[in-house]
Specification:
There is one protein chain. The protein has eleven helices and ten strands. By secondary structure, the chain is α/β, with parallel strands linked by helices. The chain has a single domain (about 1-290), classed as LigB-like (Protocatechuate 4,5-dioxygenase, Chain B). The chain has an eight-stranded mixed β-sheet, with helices on both faces. A hairpin with a 2-residue loop joins strand 9 and strand 10 (about 280-290). Helix 2 (about 20-25) packs across helix 6 (about 130-140), helix 5 (about 105-115) crosses helix 7 and helix 7 runs parallel beside helix 11 (about 250-255). The longest helix is centred in the middle third of the chain and has 16 residues, at about 165-180. It binds 3,4-dihydroxybenzoic acid and fe (iii) ion. The site of fe (iii) ion has 6 residues, from loops.
Length: about 290
């Protein structure tokens, strides 16, 4: 027991969409407008919760949208081991948000542990981070001068096929939990799964949203993630649209919770929110606490 007290642990997992227009609404002072108000109301609890439950490190699972990576180089899983990560210029200038401070020591430890646990990660020592990472931080933390703690960016390829299966993501989450729990410093670590929910940005079905399917996804993510992890890609794409596949990233965060390892009770649902639409996307959000 004495040993466990000195080790890092995962305290909670957070799940949220990352729609870039949400970042623009925050940056341009439009959160009070009638279109945006109901969305931001759903995150008021979350911002307070973040203040009361600030971790030592956030392990932030997200996807890069052809910003840092391109078709020239497509890592399936990439872990950010740098000391800092600048907000990327995605075509309209960089977002006016703080530089992301990394945690090279914990990131390197997780890379070592997870790779030895048979998951092949790409090590990234220099990378700008796009809306996939900065919008979730803005939603959870508001507009601080500095983000409240270091962040380890973990990028997943969900843009160019072949993308990893839900099952692999769920297993990877379990390996990340083992890695965190073997780090010899008593850090409180949150793991965030971001992207989704249903949306399709191009093609004949552009604008597709499937609220019933999304809510069933939230139910299953909470109560039976192992079963949800068996869902094939085709169902994500058929039911939740081509960009709905971003949701496999939520299974990484869920796989890192202690009940999955059989070493804890089912997590407490601290917050659940769903809103349609934000831009072209159904917005889903969960906070699950290990207990
Ligand atoms: C939108 C959603 C995304 O996930 C994204 O990466 C870009 C745009 C949208 O709804 O507009
Ligand atoms: Fe996206």
């Amino acid at each position: 027991m004495g040993k466990e007290l000195n080790m890092a642990r995962i305290t909670a997992s957070v799940y949220t969409s990352h729609v870039p227009a949400i970042g623009a609404a925050i940056d341009l002072g439009k959160t009070g407008e009638p279109y945006w108000q109901p969305l931001f109301k759903g995150y008021e609890f979350s911002k307070q919760w973040m203040k009361e439950n600030t971790p030592d490190v956030i392990f932030l699972v997200y996807n890069d949208h052809a910003t840092a990576f391109s078709l020239e180089l497509i890592p399936t899983f990439a872990i950010g081991c740098a000391a800092e990560f600048k907000p990327a210029d995605e075509g309209y200038g960089a977002r006016p948000v703080p530089t992301v401070i990394g945690h090279p020591e914990l990131a390197s430890h997780i890379a070592q542990s997870v790779i030895q646990d048979d998951f092949d990660l790409t090590i990234v020592n220099k990378m700008d981070v796009d809306h996939g990472l900065t919008v979730p931080l803005s939603l959870m933390c508001g507009q601080p001068q500095a983000w409240p703690c270091p962040v380890i960016p973990f990028a997943v390829n969900v843009v160019q096929y072949p993308v990893p299966s839900g099952r692999r993501c769920f297993q990877l989450g379990q390996a990340i939990r083992r890695a965190v729990e073997s780090y010899d410093e008593p850090l409180k670590v949150q793991i965030w799964g971001t992207g989704g929910m249903s949306h399709q940005l191009q093609g004949a079905r552009a604008g597709l949203i499937n609220a019933a399917w999304d809510n069933r996804f939230l139910d299953r993510l909470i109560a039976d993630p192992a079963d949800l992890a068996t869902m094939p890609h085709l169902e994500y794409v058929q039911e939740a649209g081509s960009e709905g596949i971003e949701l496999v990233m939520w299974l990484i965060a869920r796989g890192a919770m202690s009940d999955v390892a059989g070493s804890g009770k089912a997590p407490k649902v601290a917050h659940r929110f769903f809103h349609v639409p934000a831009s072209n996307t159904a917005v889903g959000h969960l906070i699950l606490e290990n207990q």
